[in-house]
Write a sequence for this structure.
């Protein structure tokens, strides 16, 4: 049985959410560098909400795909060196994606509590990891669904 069109559209939605999270993360970083603390706060909270929406859509896709097809994932069809590159990106993405929610929650919590020294310290770790996960999410999508 084939999956319905709405299920097959979810990977593109997920890539768009990752791309939007990337733009929001960079915009939030620019805001804080320019001293626009309120704009930084709103932008980063929006980035978190977009990332939560991504996670919901991601899980919905894999559960629904399994329901309709019996498989919860799509296999990468590339061969040779590109296959090694894909799995290197995917491995690092999955490992780092597992820690982003905890890092983001702690970072946001410290920011909302105005615990600036501790917020800055963890944000210096959270930001590049979260940005990497968002960017590589788009790269993985392109490689998996548009690579010939």
């Amino acid at each position: 049985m084939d999956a319905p069109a709405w299920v097959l559209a979810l990977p593109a939605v997920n890539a768009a959410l990752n791309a939007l999270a990337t733009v929001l993360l960079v915009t939030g970083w620019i805001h804080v560098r320019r001293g626009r603390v309120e704009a930084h706060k709103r932008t980063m909270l929006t980035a978190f909400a977009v990332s939560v929406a991504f996670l919901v859509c991601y899980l919905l896709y894999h559960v629904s795909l399994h329901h309709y097809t019996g498989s919860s994932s799509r296999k990468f069809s590339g061969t040779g060196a590109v296959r090694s590159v894909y799995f290197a990106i995917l491995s690092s993405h999955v490992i780092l994606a597992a820690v982003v929610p905890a890092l983001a929650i702690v970072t946001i919590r410290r920011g909302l509590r105005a615990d600036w020294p501790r917020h800055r310290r963890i944000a210096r770790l959270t930001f590049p990891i979260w940005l990497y996960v968002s960017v590589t999410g788009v790269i993985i999508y392109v490689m998996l669904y548009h690579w010939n």
Notes: The chain has a mean pLDDT of 97. The radius of gyration is 17 Å.
